[in-house]
Amino acid sequence: MDTAMETILKRKSVRAYEDKAIDTVVKEQILHAAMRAPTAGNLMLYSIIEVNDRAKKGTLAKTCDNQPFIARAPWVLLFLADYQRWYDYFLYCGVEEFAVRNGLKLRRPEEGDLFLACCDALIAAQTAVIAAESLGIGSCYIGDIMEKYEEHRALFNLPPYTFPICLLCFGYPTAGQLRRRQTTRFDPGFIVFSDSYRRLGPEEFAEMFKDEHRRVFKDRAEINGVRNVGQAVYRRKFATDFTLEMNRSVRAILKNWRGK
Ligand SMILES: Cc1cc2nc3c(=O)[nH]c(=O)nc-3n(C[C@H](O)[C@H](O)[C@H](O)COP(=O)(O)O)c2cc1C
Predict the structure, then answer these.
(1) Which of 69, 118, 142 to mutate to test the pocket of ligand 1 (most atoms within 8 A of CB)?
(2) pLDDT tens-place values along the chain, 260 residues long
(3) Whose CA is nearest to atom 28 of ligand 1?
(4) How far is the CA of 146 from the centre of ligand 1 (A)?
(5) What does the alpha-carbon distance between residue 114 and residue 82 come to, in Å, rounded to a whole number?
(6) How far is the CA of 50 from the centre of ligand 1 (A)?
């Protein structure tokens, strides 16, 4: 078995899978590892939905910005930030009467509670990723699960104090995926700061994107109206229909969470 460090350093996202089911025992091991992840206040502010139904996977492949490999993934997990379970339990335990009797503020889950629950869910998800990797199983996050909230709410019967924060696809990597190169990362000098935040200036940006600029543009000044990496990413990732939909959808989730 690899050391933890080797597993972390060799991981890459896997989007094509062998036609091989993942054993129930192996799934249980991965879920067990996920649930051993740190969790705020030891409250486990998340739920995990195993998406076993073929039709539901097929729907997700469309609703998550048309990514067909989701339907082909042998194992799909939906991670929810979840305060519903605790809030329901609070009500079951009579906290309304308790709050009045003890002069405590009666409150519902708010935005801060949601962010904390998102931290919990994502930490559990990433622990599942690393556990799977250590067992030879590849994975890929699907951030587009934050889109199309109304459809996902109906598909998974989501109550108001849940937030579908990420979807994970798992499967044994194909030979092609195993051969594929890892993606690059920025130099730590642009990412890791000492003691306080440091905004980057023009020279540092030029240095930060030098290699990527050369790789994409070679000696060309412009490609289809795009002149640098920032413009390319702005067009391809930031100002796209799917990011507009994600922001609309997240506003709808927040509205529901706030009970409006
Ligand atoms: C929050 C999040 C959302 C992501 N969403 C998607 C997605 O919808 N589709 C996809 O193919 N990859 C998705 N990815 C995978 C990234 O594209 C991938 O991690 C990145 O390109 C770096 O490659 P690597 O994981 O192989 O190192 C997502 C990753 C994260 C962390």
Answers:
(1) 142
(2) 679 999 999 999 999 999 999 999 999 999 999 999 999 999 999 999 999 999 999 999 999 999 999 999 999 999 999 999 999 999 999 999 999 999 999 999 999 999 999 999 999 999 999 999 999 999 999 999 999 999 999 999 999 999 999 999 999 999 999 999 999 999 999 999 999 999 999 999 999 999 999 999 999 999 999 999 999 999 999 999 999 999 999 999 999 999 87
(3) 141
(4) 14
(5) 8
(6) 20
